[in-house]
Amino acid sequence: AEEFRYARTLTDKPLISPIQSPVTQAFRIDPGTVYKNKTEIAWALVPFINQELKDVVAAGCTHVQFDEPAYWIADGGPEEMVEIFNACVEGVEATIGFHLCFGNFRGRPATSHRSFAVFAPHFKDLHVDVLHIEFANRNMYEVELWEQYGGDKILCAGVIDVKGRSLEPVDVVADRIRTCLRHCAPDKLWLAPDCGFSQTPRFLANEKMRVMVEAAAMVRSEIG
Fold first, then answer.
1. Nearest 10 degrees: CA dihedral of 194, 198, 204, 208?
2. Which of 21, 118, 166, 218 is most deeply buried (CB count within 10 A of its CB)?
């Protein structure tokens, strides 16, 4: 909440407050002799994360986003992952986003087979408004699953490759957007980079965002 209040003093533009999920945080903690396993740690973190979210909303935040590259480690599988997440956002009055991340440590993914197919059937059970999924780095792989599992949620599609060191041409990004629109209604589609730009040089990140904005304008003019 303190960081959000500081950011608010720097701009009047919309802000998103991101937070790591308890599952991702638990992944980095040794259970030792205190906890039975990492899932138990995740549950122990839930009330603290829930309170932090309520505090940041009280500070004026209207959109919070969970970053989750470790959804698969809960002992109870995807079902328990959903339970943990939903407990975190209970009573949080804001737009809730969920970034299904494949990792970006040192510009590299965490796994070689980057698929969300096993988790997609559980989208309907997540208490979220927006699902942010990376597609650009995976050549738009599995975007068709949104048509089956997206329901009434908003798809925030990753159309900029943050792991690639080259700048995509505008027409390439525009084509990625068109691919999304074959499986998602225009009023349910948001655009974003695949992930954060922490591993990308600032000058390149700025250029990639410029390309995304130009590509969005191009496609928007086509669909009216």
1. 20
2. 21
Using a 10 angstrom Cβ sphere, with 0-12 exposed, 13-18 middle and 19 or more buried, the burial of residue 122 is middle
CB 33: neighbour CB atoms within 10 A? 6
pLDDT tens track for 162-201: 988 899 999 999 999 999 999 999 999 999 999 989 889 9
User: pLDDT per residue over 1-22, tens digit each?
Assistant: 899 999 999 999 999 999 988 9
- For domain 2-104+127-223, say whether CATH 3.20.20.210 is its number: yes
- pLDDT, one tens digit per residue, over 37-86 is 989 999 999 999 999 999 999 999 999 999 886 666 677 888 999 999 99
Q: In what order do the strands lie in the sheet with 130-134?
A: 17-20, 63-68, 95-100, 130-134, 154-160, 189-193
Q: Which positions ≥6 away from 196 have C-beta within 8 Å? A: 67, 104, 162
Measured over the CA atoms of residue 159, residue 165, residue 167 and residue 169, the dihedral's sign is negative
